[in-house]
């Protein structure tokens, strides 16, 4: 019989570790800082970058969002479910394998369909940044996998530090780029790119991945975890896929 949830993560005791209020405050620090910096720095950025630059950066983000949904096939959220740490480690490996497959698929699409994508979205300048799409997708998948691994280990401080570092690095790069005359969409896109790399590197601190353990018992546990997660996650994934479909339809309608 497979049980869900657990009380210990290595040397951590979930009931005796940190209080709920401390964990909650730690996790909301990054979103609060993001909102505060956004309020104060957005007027500065709008004076440096043109509306066209913001529009191209937003279009690039929309393109990246479509394959990013499938980077880990949504199974990163299942990492915190199993009682066995070995099963959780195997789920992490499944996520990384999914990231590699999605990355390779994105590379093929960009190599053979770069011009078609530019024509589809009616933005020729976007072709200069499409080579970043597979890397972005891989980084997003790694971040989500590492984030849920850290949640399982109760490393909330590490998650918060990564988010705050991302915010500060992104705004610093974008403002510096605009100040030195590089006030194109590249300044906004590369700022996001560099900050994403930074937050993944911070989450990699202390991360140890054990070799894949395959046995019939382990396979059944992994399969049961995936099935259980699909049941509880079906509605959220359906809404996410509907959003992607709506986004594609908007792009097609805009093109027509």
Describe this entry's structure for a reader.
With 256 residues, the protein is mainly alpha-helical. It has one domain (17-255). It contains 7 helices and 2 strands. A two-stranded antiparallel sheet has the order 1-2. Helix 3 runs antiparallel to helix 4 (133-152) and helix 3 packs parallel to helix 7. The longest helix is centred in the last third of the chain and has 40 residues, at 216-255. It starts with 7 loop residues before the first strand and ends with a helix.
What is the gist of this entry?
Helix content is 73%, strand content 2%. It is built from seven helices and two strands.
For the largest beta-sheet, the strand count, sense and barrel status come to: 2 strands, antiparallel
The stretches of 5 or more residues where confidence is low (pLDDT under 50) are 1-17, 251-256
Cα shape: flat
Tally of DSSP helical segments: 7
Which percent band covers the strand fraction?
Answer: under 5%
Give me the side-by-side strand order of the main sheet: 1-2
The succession of helices and strands, N to C, reads: EEHHHHHHH
User: What's the total count of β strands?
Assistant: 2
Rounded radius of gyration (Å): 20 Å
| Class by SSE composition | mainly alpha
Distance between the termini: 55 Å
Write down the domain tally.
Answer: 1
Mean of the pLDDT scores?
77
Helix amount, in percent?
over 70%
């Amino acid at each position: 019989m497979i049980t869900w949830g657990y009380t210990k993560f290595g040397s951590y005791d979930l009931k005796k570790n940190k209080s709920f209020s401390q964990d909650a405050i730690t996790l909301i620090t990054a979103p609060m800082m993001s909102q505060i910096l956004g309020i104060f720095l957005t007027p500065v950025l709008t004076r440096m970058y043109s509306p066209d630059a913001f529009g191209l950066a937003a279009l690039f983000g929309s393109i990246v969002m479509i394959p990013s949904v499938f980077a880990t096939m949504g199974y990163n959220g299942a990492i915190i479910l199993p009682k066995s740490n070995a099963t959780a480690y195997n789920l992490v490996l499944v996520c990384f394998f999914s990231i590699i497959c999605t990355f390779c698929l994105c590379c093929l699409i960009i190599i053979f369909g770069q011009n078609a994508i530019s024509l589809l979205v009616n933005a020729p300048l976007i072709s200069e940044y499409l080579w970043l799409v597979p890397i972005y997708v891989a980084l997003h998948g790694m971040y989500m996998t590492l984030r849920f691994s850290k949640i399982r280990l109760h490393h909330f401080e590490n998650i918060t530090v990564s988010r705050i570092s991302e915010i500060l690095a992104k705004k610093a790069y974008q403002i510096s780029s605009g100040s030195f005359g590089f006030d194109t969409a590249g300044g906004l896109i590369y700022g996001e790119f560099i900050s994403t790399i930074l937050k993944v590197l911070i989450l990699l601190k202390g991360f140890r991945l054990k070799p894949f353990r395959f046995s019939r018992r382990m396979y059944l546990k992994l399969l049961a975890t995936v099935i259980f997660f699909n049941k509880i996650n079906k509605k959220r994934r359906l809404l996410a896929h509907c959003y992607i479909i709506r986004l594609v339809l908007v792009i097609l309608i805009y093109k027509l």
